[in-house]
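PROTOCOL LOG
Step 1. Enter all chains and additional molecules of the complex.
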Amino acid sequence: MNRRNTPTKEAVLNLLLSSRKALSQDAIERQLDIEINRATIYRVLNRFCEDDIVHKIVAEDGKQYFAICKKCEDQPEVVQHHFHFRCLSCDSIECLQVPVEYSVPNGYEVQNANCVLTGTCNDCS
Amino acid sequence: MNRRNTPTKEAVLNLLLSSRKALSQDAIERQLDIEINRATIYRVLNRFCEDDIVHKIVAEDGKQYFAICKKCEDQPEVVQHHFHFRCLSCDSIECLQVPVEYSVPNGYEVQNANCVLTGTCNDCS
DNA sequence: TGTTTTATTGCGAATAAGTTGCAATAATAC
DNA sequence: GTATTATTGCAACTTATTCGCAATAAAACA
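Step 2. Run joint prediction.
Step 3. Record the structure below.
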């Protein structure tokens, strides 16, 4: 299943790269100049996730948001789990450079972390 | 808007009290002996949330799960934000007694935290 | 105890997010 | 240039949650 380069893929990737925020499918659809089908956007995004180009966050609104996997300065090798911040005022989600730290009971094995803080961001407070 | 006691409310509350896990609407509906309408279950649960009897978790499946606000031994006054664990094997969500710790950039104000770790629980590993 | 008030419920319909099957299109390899 | 098959668009579908409305039933009160 080799990947192909398409205008759609390019457009979505560029949008995500230029965005400071995590974007939902409908935000992406709105912000793109070219018209791309809803289902296609999801498929492109999910492929990006499979390829670890993008990570998916699910917020308390139950919606999926997608953000480029930027590597943290301190740990260039790993894109570790970090907190996300959802501002209720401007309704945007961004990645914080704050690693998620936790311990789990014996026998538990963590594969993923989905952590979203909610409140008011600097721009809105 | 005074609250009234109803069989429905009782039943849902007792179920949540007796459950070690956070429950979704459909899990509650399935586990109850009495027949309660879907919309009603949601309304009861949301009222519990408003009254801080129950807290809501949204998992990466986008679904809402509800759990009794048990107070942690260490900080009996406050039900502080804690991690949740979702086991992909037995598909259940539970509250961990692990507080969520974080810092946020200047000017950010956190009102809530929704943190779910995903993986395999002790029973399934 | 009977009556009134209004919170709660059930029902059905609506909404919204995300997925899927399928046929058409278009990258890429040869 | 042709063949292969990844990608796309479309429409339909699924699933979770919400909402309006009329009926019901707690709770307060006479």
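Step 4. Note key features.
Chain A has a mean pLDDT of 93.
Chain A is about 25% helix and 30% strand.
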